[in-house]
Design a protein that fits this description.
4-stranded antiparallel beta sheet, 511 residues, alpha/beta, 19 helices
């Protein structure tokens, strides 16, 4: 191997082929340099390739390399010697040597052992907790029929980047960088109160709104404050398993309310024992059914007559694309017995983690104390960026775009199922981003999920949504927020073939 070949191999080891789908090339180059200096592959005084040489070796723009070199010089990692090139500076390396902690000498003589019994010390999780799992690399699958996942083709990246840049202006940083202790960003509160909540029919004051790290934290805080250990919580069955898990962790006793074509059934016998009801009336999780006006009135009447509390998770409320959306339960509750949970994460992207609670001021005051003990407050830079996103009209436009696209996908999924899987019973969605299906009794969607996974199709079998899994293995949820419309029918066609294969065992296979 020629010396030049060795030289190039060395630099390719430091800078593997850039990932042009991930962060910017400048960022990747900088991280490569800094990592190589930290771990000793680049030593102080070492001469670097010229910007042209490195650009040719990595097949990137020379300007990209020049900008990285200049910034590293500015930050003290490199030094530019006129007419001689760029060299690794000793400034950073000497600083690293003086600040790196030295491990103390360890006495290796055997000592009497008294290990901690961690299982005895830990407070165990309650029985009955179940989860929905998905592969970490789900985006690589051909047909990801998963609920609530991020679709980069729909997200307004340029608009969000603009708002994030504005949140990084000097004046803006002075507003969000200090410790807010237990306060929320005033601009985001204002946007929620003026522009988001009114669409759900809710009028709220600042002291009645608390920001959270997504709807999940909102549920946890509410459970900590309002669900007493040993009390009874009525939940939808099937329903959202993470809400059940939170209530179980609190030590509550759960009772199930069945679901029909009008939503949750306010069964008087079940409700008679409950102090709290948790529900998802806008688009029920997981069926997608909108709670009827009569059922809403019945739940509010129960709360009023029995001194009950309603926890309303306004799940997928913004994504109504057929007919007019119903107002939130909170909007028609004149007795102030409804605790409302909303989320920007479900609308914009799961990773944003911004949710909110609307409740009487005296409840919010105590929830704020609990939140302070847990995390103090959600990240304020994200709050400001979200406030700008709403104020500039990007949120309204994004919601409109999402509704139109989800309507297209729902129509394509409905058609594909009616064509290729007519034996599956379902109600065509009029909103939201998932469809709930039911096969004949005895069909096992857990086996179907495994077979589909092996063929590049991701689906969610429905047993985890039920309070008791026995005899509930014939349901499936098909999400369509993360799969392009042109892949829906081919995916369902392949899924139908797997259903047929499962229904018709090969010769010699025991039934």
């Amino acid at each position: 191997m020629r010396n030049n070949d060795v030289y190039q191999v060395m630099w390719h080891q430091i800078f593997p082929n850039p990932d042009r789908q991930a962060s910017t090339l400048q960022s990747q180059l900088r991280v490569g340099f800094v990592d190589a200096m930290r771990d000793g592959r680049l030593l102080a005084g070492m001469r670097l390739p010229s910007s042209r040489e490195l650009a040719d070796m990595l097949s990137v723009s020379r300007n990209t390399v020049v900008l990285v070199y200049e910034k590293l010089v500015e930050d003290g990692y490199l030094e530019n010697r006129p007419r001689n090139g760029y060299y690794v500076s000793d400034q950073y390396l000497s600083h690293a040597r003086t600040t790196t902690a030295t491990a103390p000498a360890i006495d290796t003589k055997p000592a009497s052992s008294n290990p901690v019994d961690w299982h005895r010390r830990m407070i165990g999780l309650p029985a009955g907790m179940r989860w929905l799992d998905k592969p970490g690399d789900w985006q690589r699958y051909r047909y990801p029929f998963l609920y609530g996942q991020f679709d980069p083709s729909l997200f307004p990246i340029a608009d969000w980047r603009e708002c994030s840049r504005r949140a990084l202006d000097v004046s803006a940083i002075h507003r969000w960088a200090p410790d807010a202790i237990d306060h929320d960003n005033e601009s985001l509160l204002a946007q929620l109160i003026w522009h988001v909540l009114p669409r759900r029919g809710i009028a709220a004051k600042r002291e009645e709104v608390l920001l959270t790290v997504g709807a999940q934290q909102a549920l946890y805080l509410i459970s900590e404050l309002l669900v007493a250990p040993g009390s009874t919580v009525a939940v939808e069955n099937p329903g959202y398993m993470d809400a059940r898990n939170i209530f179980l962790r609190r030590g509550a006793h759960l009772v199930g309310l069945d679901i029909d074509h009008e939503g949750v059934l306010p069964d008087r016998d079940v409700l008679a024992a409950a102090q709290t009801v948790y529900c998802t009336p806008s688009h029920q999780c997981p069926t997608g059914i909108t709670l009827s006006a009569a059922r809403r009135a019945a739940l509010l009447a129960w709360a009023r007559e029995c001194d009950g509390i309603l926890i309303e998770d306004d799940y997928d409320a913004e994504m109504q694309y057929t007919g007019k959306p119903s107002p939130a339960l909170k909007a028609i509750d004149h007795d102030r017995r409804t605790i409302y949970i909303g989320s920007l994460s479900k609308t914009l992207s799961p990773g944003l983690r911004i949710g909110y609670i609307v409740a009487p001021a005296e409840v919010i005051e105590q929830l704020r104390v609990l939140r302070r003990l847990m995390i103090r407050h959600p990240a304020t830079n994200n709050q400001m960026a979200a406030a700008l996103f709403i104020a500039h009209g990007h949120y309204d436009r994004f919601v409109h775009t999402m509704r139109e696209e989800l309507a297209r996908r729902a129509k394509a999924l409905t058609h594909a199922l009616q064509t290729h899987l007519p034996e599956m019973q379902f109600q065509p969605p009029d909103g939201g981003s998932a469809l709930w299906g039911e096969f004949a009794a005895g069909f096992d969607t857990r086996k179907l999920r495994q077979a589909a996974h092996e063929h590049g199709i991701l689906i969610e079998s429905g047993e985890s949504f039920f309070l008791a899994q026995a005899d509930r293995t014939n349901h499936v949820r098909l999400g369509f927020s993360s799969i392009p419309v042109d892949r829906i029918e081919p995916g369902i066609k392949e899924l139908a073939a797997l259903v047929k294969r499962q229904r018709t065992p090969s010769p010699g296979t025991p039934r």
